[in-house]
Amino acid sequence: MASSHMASAHLRTGSGDVPRENPCAQCGRPISIPEWIEAGQRRTSYLWHCFACDYRFEAVAFEPAQEPLAA
After folding, report:
1. Sequential DSSP letters for the chain
2. pLDDT tens digits, one per residue of 40-71
3. Do 31 and 8 touch, CB atoms closer than 8 A?
4. Angle CA(15)–CA(19)–CA(20) in degrees, nearest 5?
């Protein structure tokens, strides 16, 4: 069941950017979508909740720094 937090997270990150079927860090079962997504400057945090074993964990994706273009 998707929460209202998930709906707003989709709007911020775009539905094509959301990771899917991430394995649980404890039991290994796939989790369909993150429970919460928070975008920051050059990083995105994902909160995962496994309903099979009730384990919650966070994964962070970092974007490489972009070099300035020559003027």
Report:
1. ---HHHHHHHHHH-GGG---SEEPTTT--EESS-SEEEEETTEEEEEEE-TTT--EEEEEEEPPPPPPPP-
2. 989 999 999 999 999 999 999 998 887 776 66
3. no
4. 100
Query: In this predicted model, what pLDDT tens digit does every residue of 16-36 receive, in sequence order?
Result: 578 899 999 999 999 999 999
Q: Which among 11, 23, 20 is positioned nearest to 52, based on CA atoms?
A: 23
Cβ neighbors of 36 (< 8 A, separation 6 or more) are 3, 5, 6, 9, 46, 47
Q: What is the pTM of this model?
A: 0.65
